[in-house]
Structure formats: structure tokens, C-alpha cells
């Protein structure tokens, strides 16, 4: 051990500082005086709860969140110690929750709230308590523990027991759907990762989001695609969300699952029906309408995302006989993840700590554009082959040029793609012809007549 090392005994509030008068050299980054606040910040940092917060220049919301974390950490540790002592088989853990997933968020809090996740170690049922509720329960737990120490009867009716909570539904995990593709009139038909409050992947949610007509008919890319999102400003946009199914790594919700989300155009949440099954098929569809696309909508498409919550219906019936005979300390040991040597990093439920779409979405858009260019290249090649096969007397350049020009400046084609290696030179040549044609110069057209159309490709 080194001078001024900090020592924490168990999960209680017993913190000590080791002083070495023989070798009083301080390790790098350790202050000469260690106080309670420094120790609590250090514990929060190494637990991963403040890993996403800067150490300096905190915003007001970040400062409030940090203070709440430092306030709740010792309380959570004390509640767990009492639960172990009284063998109540209940665990408490700090969790960071995005206000985006809360029905009634604390108006005084920032985008992220510090809450307490309560877990029954026998049934694996979980609850989320907001800060005020947990603090009230914690004082009742202290009173119960004091009676236990005094040898008094500390049992209470179930409704008054601070460790008891009626079974409610719980957020199993959340997934984020970025909206960049919608700015280009493109669809999204894929799966998104579902992560729990610890940032661990627990499964996948399959979603289809696509531009559509008023009757829900899916529009083709030829009808909706735009090269420049600004071209959508002032236009009407209608799209639909299809929630297909969810696949969880461990589905322990026999009473069913449902999905809940709130589109940026809606003031309230939308929920699917509750579906029972190993791989629930929701078949949920809802159409959304933007009467006039504004610059603010495009900004949201570029930087925003929609949070999809997978909600599980909990029950008290899944009691494991083996777990029921174990002590709280033994059950807590089962909950501990294997030691990997890596520091835990707390995730924010709702995905606010996830990276923006960035390169991943850019790649998606580029692939779509590449596919369309490949389709055009294939069609241009087919046109040349079709005209080359015609009798010589039918090879009229004006008609061929009109067809190529019309296609080159159209929105797209349904023909499959081909080799893209020569795409740039081809489009450059077509662009030159189009520019000359737009000048309306007769000499330019006469020069076109002298050009062999097969040289275009």
C-alpha cells in the first residue's frame, strides 16, 4: 500500500485513509488531504457511474446529476448492507435513466435522472424508484434495522414493508433508431440492438420504417429518394413504422412483452399490444404525417433518434426453490459478473450516452446512393446494347440521345445494379452532353449527330 491510499470495508460507509509516515510520498493525482467528498467521487468514478461526465466545466445538468450520484451511492450501499443483515433478498443499485423513456420525468432534472433499480433476488423482478421514493424508503429501512438491533419486533404488514413493492411492468431494454435515412426519402428495414441499464446487449428488435402513401402503401425509392435533403423542405412527408418482432437472449417474461416508443411528431407514447411467446410477433403498424417538412425536421433527421422500449410483464410466480433457500449474501454473489479486469461503464437507459449515427449512417446513405448509380449504369449499358442491335437505318442518334438524357436525369430505375468501376467517367460524359444540349446551340446538336453513340460507354 502507498501513502494516502483509500480503504473501503464492505459496502458500508466505513472509509479509511492509510498514512505511511516512513514513506510519505504521494502517488500521482492524489491530493495531500483526503476528504469524504473526494472519496465518494472516486467510488462513483470507478463504479462507472460518472465515466461519461467531464471532470471540469460541468454543465448545470451534469453538476446536478453528479451531486445526485454522490448523494445516493452511500445510501444504496447502506440499504444493501441492511438487506443482507435482515436477509430480505432485495438488492439496490444506482441506474441512470434518460427522461425520454419516463412517463412522468422529474421536471427539475436534466436529460438524465439518477434512479435506483430494486431487484428481488429470488424472482428476478425489478422496479425503478425515483430518488425521492428511495430516500423515503431508506429512512423506513433504517427504522426497521434499529428495531432489529434493539431486539424489538421489526416485522411489518406487507403494505407497510419498505422492502416490498407490488409487481409492475419493467423496461427490459431500449434501442435507438436513427432517422438519417428519412432525410433522403429512404426506408429502414433491419434490426436494432436492445441494451439494458448496464449497457449489455439483451436482444434485437426488428423494425421497418418507410415513406408511404395515405393508404399505407409503401412507396418505391424512385418515388421518394432525394439527393439533397434540403429538397424536402416545404413538402409533405408521410411514413409508417412497423414493429415486427423482438428476440431476447433470455426471455423470462412468460406473461408477454410489448414495445413502446414516442415519435418526434407525437406528444404521447405509442404502444404495441402485449404479445406472449418465445419470439413475440407484434405486427404493429402506425402511419405518421408531417404536413410540411421544416428545417427543424431535417435537423432532427440528421442528429436525432427514436427510442424504442421493450417492456416485460412481470409475475411473482417464477420463484426458484433453489434460490428461495439461499441467503441474501449468497444470492448477491450469483448476481456478480465474472471479473474481467476492465472497469465497468454505466450505460444510460434510453441511449443518451451512445455515439451519434456518424459514419455508420453515412455508410448507409452512401450504399443506397451507390446502388442507385449502379442501377443507372446497368440501364445505360442495356440501352447501348439495344441500339447496337438495331438495323443501321434505325440507329438514329437524336432518338437515342433523348432516351439516354431522359434516363440520366430521372430519379432512378428498378433495374438491378452492375459493376461500378467506370461509373464516374460515364456520368461525367453524360453531364457534358447534357450541358451542351441545354445551351440550345444547333452546332452542338450537329456535333452530337456526328458522334458514335456507342462511345458513350
Mean pLDDT value: 78
Low-confidence segments: 339-346, 352-358, 412-428, 440-457
The secondary structure category is alpha+beta
Major beta-sheet overview: 4 strands, mixed
Distance between the termini: 75 Å
Shape: elongated
Which percent range describes the beta-strand content? 15-25%
For the biggest β-sheet, the strand order reads: 5-4-3-14
- Give the beta-strand count: 14
Q: What is the H-and-E element order? A: EEHHEEEHEHEEHEEEEHEHHEHHHH
Helical segment tally?
12
Percent helix among the residues? 25-40%
Spatial extent as radius of gyration: 31 Å
Characteristics:
457 residues, alpha+beta, four-stranded mixed beta sheet, four-stranded antiparallel beta sheet, 14 strands, 21% strand, disordered C terminus
Outline the structure in words.
- Helices cover 34% and strands 21% of the residues.
- By secondary structure, the chain is an alpha+beta fold.
- The strands form four sheets. It has a four-stranded mixed beta sheet. The chain has a four-stranded antiparallel beta sheet with strand order 6-13-10-11.
- A hairpin with an 8-residue loop joins strand 10 and strand 11.
- Helix 1 crosses helix 2 (60-86) and helix 2 (60-86) packs parallel to helix 3 (131-149).
- It is elongated and about 110 Å long.
Amino acid at each position: 500500500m502507498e501513502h494516502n491510499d483509500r480503504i473501503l470495508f464492505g459496502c458500508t460507509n466505513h472509509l479509511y485513509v492509510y498514512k505511511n509516515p516512513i514513506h510519505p510520498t504521494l502517488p500521482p493525482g492524489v491530493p495531500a488531504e483526503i476528504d469524504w467528498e473526494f472519496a465518494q467521487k472516486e467510488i462513483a468514478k470507478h463504479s462507472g457511474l460518472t465515466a461519461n461526465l467531464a471532470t471540469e466545466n460541468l454543465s448545470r445538468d451534469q453538476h446536478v446529476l453528479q451531486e445526485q450520484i454522490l448523494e445516493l451511492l452511500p445510501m444504496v450501499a447502506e440499504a444493501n448492507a441492511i438487506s443482507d443483515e435482515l436477509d430480505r433478498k432485495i438488492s439496490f443499485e444506482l441506474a441512470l435513466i434518460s427522461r425520454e423513456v419516463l412517463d412522468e420525468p422529474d421536471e427539475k432534472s436534466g436529460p438524465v435522472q439518477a434512479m435506483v433499480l430494486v431487484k428481488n433476488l429470488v424472482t428476478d423482478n425489478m422496479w425503478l424508484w425515483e430518488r425521492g421514493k428511495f430516500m423515503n424508503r431508506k429512512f423506513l429501512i433504517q427504522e426497521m434495522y434499529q428495531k432489529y438491533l434493539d431486539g424489538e419486533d421489526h416485522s411489518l404488514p406487507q403494505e407497510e414493508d419498505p422492502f416490498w413493492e407490488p409487481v409492475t411492468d419493467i423496461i427490459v431494454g431500449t434501442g435507438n433508431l436513427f432517422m438519417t435515412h428519412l432525410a433522403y426519402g429512404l426506408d429502414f428495414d433491419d434490426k436494432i440492438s436492445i441494451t439494458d441499464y448496464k449497457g449489455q446487449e439483451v436482444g434485437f428488435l426488428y423494425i421497418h420504417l418507410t415513406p408511404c402513401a395515405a393508404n399505407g402503401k409503401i412507396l418505391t425509392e424512385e418515388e421518394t429518394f432525394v439527393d439533397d435533403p434540403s429538397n424536402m423542405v416545404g413538402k409533405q412527408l408521410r411514413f409508417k413504422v412497423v414493429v415486427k418482432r423482438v428476440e431476447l437472449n433470455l426471455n423470462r417474461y412468460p406473461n408477454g412483452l410489448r414495445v413502446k416508443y414516442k415519435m418526434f411528431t407525437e406528444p404521447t407514447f405509442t404502444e404495441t399490444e402485449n404479445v406472449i411467446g418465445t419470439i413475440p410477433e407484434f405486427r404493429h403498424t402506425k402511419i405518421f404525417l408531417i404536413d410540411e417538412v421544416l428545417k427543424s425536421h431535417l435537423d432532427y433527421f440528421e442528429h436525432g433518434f427514436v427510442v424504442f422500449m421493450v417492456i416485460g410483464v412481470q409475475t411473482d410466480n417464477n420463484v426458484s426453490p433453489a434460490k428461495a433457500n439461499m441467503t441474501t449474501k449468497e444470492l448477491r454473489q450469483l448476481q456478480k459478473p465474472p471479473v474481467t479486469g476492465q472497469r465497468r461503464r454505466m450505460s444510460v437507459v434510453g441511449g443518451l450516452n451512445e455515439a451519434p449515427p456518424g459514419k455508420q449512417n453515412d455508410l448507409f446513405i452512401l450504399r443506397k446512393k451507390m446502388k442507385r448509380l449502379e442501377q443507372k449504369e446497368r440501364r445505360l449499358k442495356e440501352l447501348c446494347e439495344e441500339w447496337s442491335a438495331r438495323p443501321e437505318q434505325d440507329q438514329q442518334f437524336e432518338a437515342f440521345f433523348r432516351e439516354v438524357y431522359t434516363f440520366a436525369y430521372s430519379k432512378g430505375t428498378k433495374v438491378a445494379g452492375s459493376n461500378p468501376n467506370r461509373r464516374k467517367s460515364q456520368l461525367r460524359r453524360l453531364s457534358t452532353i447534357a450541358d451542351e444540349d441545354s445551351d440550345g446551340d444547333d452546332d452542338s446538336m450537329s456535333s452530337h449527330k456526328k458522334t458514335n453513340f456507342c462511345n458513350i460507354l
